[in-house]
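Posted in: Protein Modeling Q&A

I'm a second-year student putting together a small comparison for a lab meeting, and my supervisor asked me to include a predicted structure for ribonuclease H. I've never done this before, so apologies if this is the wrong subforum. The sequence is pasted below exactly as I got it from our records. If anyone can share the structure token output, I'd also love a short note on what stands out.
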Amino acid sequence: MGRALRDRLLMWVTAMKSAECPMPPIWWLVDKPVWENQWLLPQDKLVALHDLVKEQLDQGHLESSTSPWNTPVFCIKKKSGKWRLLQDLQKVNAMMESMGTLQAGMSSPAMLPTDWPVLIVDLKDCFLTIPLHPNDRPKFAFSVPVINKC
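Accepted answer (user: helix_wrangler)
Welcome! Here is the predicted structure, written out as tokens:
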């Protein structure tokens, strides 16, 4: 990516970060809450999960909830030795109305000319920073098991 294009992109992202973006609500197929029990986790993953959740709470990416919705969470160890928090949202995703293609008219990245600069954003790297409409937040709730200190 050229320097001028990169600088323009960085300025735009910075400007958007400070602006208040409207958060449209998600369209749901049903109103019945989804509750899936938390999986059993080994001690090391449970400790890492507590640390990751505390970090995200401190950063304001997560908030406490008494939601009737629940999906399992777990964590995996990356090659670097750090842990990554993962949430199984398959059942929640199945309750959402489809939004269609993200870019109408372009069904495949293979349609891009080979010499075009491409920027790839992996949603797993920014999921916790994507704002949700306040009415939709409880639907993404999860519970963290207590660490057994016996």
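A couple of things worth pointing out for your meeting: The helical segments are 3-18, 43-58, 90-94. The chain is about 25% helix and 5% strand.
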